Amino acid sequence: MTENSPTLHKAGSPAGPSDRPGGEVALDVRGLKKIYRGSGNEVEAIRDLTFEVRRGELVCIVGPSGAGKTTLLRCIGGLLDRTSGEVVLDGASVTGPPPGMAIVFQEYGRSLFPWMTVRQNVELPLKEKRVGKAERTRLVDEALEAVGLTESAAQHPWQLSGGMQQRVAIARAVAYEPSVLLMDEPFAAVDAQTRADLEDLVRKLWRRLGVTVLFVTHDIDESVYLGQRVLVLSNRPTVILEDVAIDLPDERDQLGTRSSARFGELRHHVYELVQQAKKGYRPETD
Predict the structure, then answer these.
(1) pTM of the predicted model, to two decimals?
(2) What domains can you pick out in the chain, each with its CATH number?
(3) Would you call 102 helix, strand, or coil by DSSP?
(4) Degrees (nearest 5) of the Cα angle 133, 134, 137?
(5) Which of 39, 153, 183, 273 could potentially form a cystine with 232 if both were Cys, beta carbons 3.0 to 4.6 Å apart?
(6) DSSP 3-state of 83
């Protein structure tokens, strides 16, 4: 390995404490397997996924189309039954949607209630959580301020642009005060400029709140720009090809970071891995 080579961690060999931010494990995925069964057929979507995310980390997941990225996230979030394996959040096994986790989906339009105002949409999970009115007001106000939507609180989602609607979805997740935030290709449906703004928003909120983030994306550049690590998935049935440590400066910006030589090296390496995955490459442990 040359001096400028990306720092890599092979599947099945988690990075040591010196390679990651300090702190305990927030999310532990152990031998996750998912097989879809129906009409006498079986489809092995995920073969074996094992990895950890430490408290306060921002980890991205990329892989070829059909690699099971959304299936993985839904299994982790307790929205989809696993065939085998275990997901542990803050020391407790996940058997359904856990109270310490929030999810932001790609389909922001479908996740917001059009007859409710922005404030009401953000507040709804807190009502279901039985948070007191004064505390709900504080949490909603802080979340709307954090995503730049204070002036839009009385509007309805259909009155907002796609990017602003996704900010509402992010605000709703932030107000819930999760220990782990799952994001499933949340910016895939917005234009490039809005996407860049939302990427910076996520990093700002992550740094400010200290929340643990697992971010699924099909965009290689986005994964390198956002993450501290990038988990590259194989083609189906899915395993982890490599766990790539992103050793970019903690302070990042769209122009400076993306034009740096190191960004280019890391992007190239992750791109090569995804191309290998498309051609059916699998690690020797498979």
Answers:
(1) 0.87
(2) 7-14+23-100+178-278 (3.40.50.300)
(3) strand
(4) 85
(5) 273
(6) coil
